[in-house]
Amino acid sequence: MAVQEARGGMGAGPHDGGCTCGDCPHGARAGHRRAVAEFLLKREEFASGQGLPAAVAHSPSASRQWVSDELTQSAAVVAERGRIEGEAWLGRLWLRTAIVVWAAVITLLLVQALTAIGTGWTVARTVGLLAALLVGAALTGAGYLHRARGGTLAPVIGEDNRLSTSRAIAASWVLFVVFAVLVLVGRLAAASDHREREALIAGLELARGAGIVTVLAVVCGIAVLVRRVVGLRVLGQRLQKVRAHRPRAADLLTDDSGRGSFTDIQYVIICAVALAFAAVRLARRPDQLPDLPWGLALLVLVSAATYVAGKYAEGGRPVILSVVRSREAGDLDAPIRNGDDIEIRGAGFVPPGAQSADRLSRMVVRIGPVHVHVPLVPVAGGFNNPTDAVLTVPVPADVEPGKVEVQVVTAAGVETNRYAIEVSAD
Questions:
Q1: The dihedral of CA 210, 216, 220, 225: what is its sign?
Q2: Per-residue confidence band for 11, with pLDDT thresholds at 50, 70 and 90
Q3: Whole-angstrom Cα distance, residue 61 to residue 65?
């Protein structure tokens, strides 16, 4: 499909990938898709041995370097188109989030209308609807002010341009507590009886809302703590972070590489269940803060502790375990010399989320004072160099014979340990 799109789109017009107008059919999304299709076509052609110029086809090292340079340039175009598409997508997101907010308000109205059948419309239903309107208006206004950064979702988008699980959970609890307090304020304003007003004020006492207040304090504290922990671990080169092209809903349940994360999933599920319980309690008793049982509150705290522990445990610094001379079939065993390929074995060379070609092309190996860019070696469906555990690079002629140190710099800018090798003079 990608090959057909790349071939069929040739000569499509002046908008090929460059236009970012929202109404143009050849806008940012089409430009990004076309750049991806062209890159995939080029990669598959190189993987099958096609497209090599005759000037480099006779030399394996020269052809490998030429292919790597061509793919690197094409990947850079894909990355730029992806950045433009991501910015345009964020600019359109604020309207979608506003629609979701008001759809939730309408849903609340429908639920109240259906549950009022037989029991009648009450003051609590009116107050709840007014509180929802106020919260929806506030979210819409804040989303409009931050429309270039994702609208209502702007506060829960992390520095790596992904949705933050801890911030999303904290924001959900904050919005719910604000809604609950507004309901009590509305009930208090509408109450005419002195005893009813006293009962509503008593509903705000800590004895009744201790569970939900504790959960709110913990999830907000964890949102701040996780940001600090991740920042310090990145600065200390104990965690590798690469920026995503745009946030996705799946970020709440996955790690940076897109795989499901147990700590994130359990945190989201347990907090969602606790929020649902609190919402039902508020619907049943709109005259007080939802009295979250301590058993359920403790379950949320255990889930939060597991989430934080997972943040401390994830990642790690990349490491070189060994460096050997790469040997082709039929080659004689020999020491490492200038011009030979060396195979660097270790772990953590490809950070989570850095599997795209533009990120892989940023990897560098220091061999003594010389910086060697890791060549991209395409195969059908991907690359066999570099990988997370093995890198293959040539030893340049500028490296002086003798003992030199090898060090890998990943796409996230993190450096591995230094590993000494001996380069033979003959």
A1: positive
A2: very low
A3: 6
Tell if the pTM clears 0.85, that is, is over it: no
Query: Where do the H-state alpha helices sit in 48-164?
Result: 54-57, 60-115, 123-145
Q: What are phi and psi of 260, to 5 degrees?
A: -60, 135
Buried b (16+ CB within 10 A) or exposed e, 81-95: bbbbbbebbbbebbe
Interacting residues of 297 by C-beta distance below 8 A, sequence separation 6+: 211, 212, 214, 215, 274
d(CA 263, CA 387): 26
pLDDT digits (tens, 9 = 90+) for 338-376: 888 899 999 999 999 888 888 888 899 999 999 999 998
- Predicted confidence (pLDDT) per residue in 71-90, tens digit: 888 888 888 888 888 888 88
DSSP E strands in 326-360: the ranges are 341-347
C-alpha dihedral, 221 to 223 to 228 to 233, nearest 10°: 130
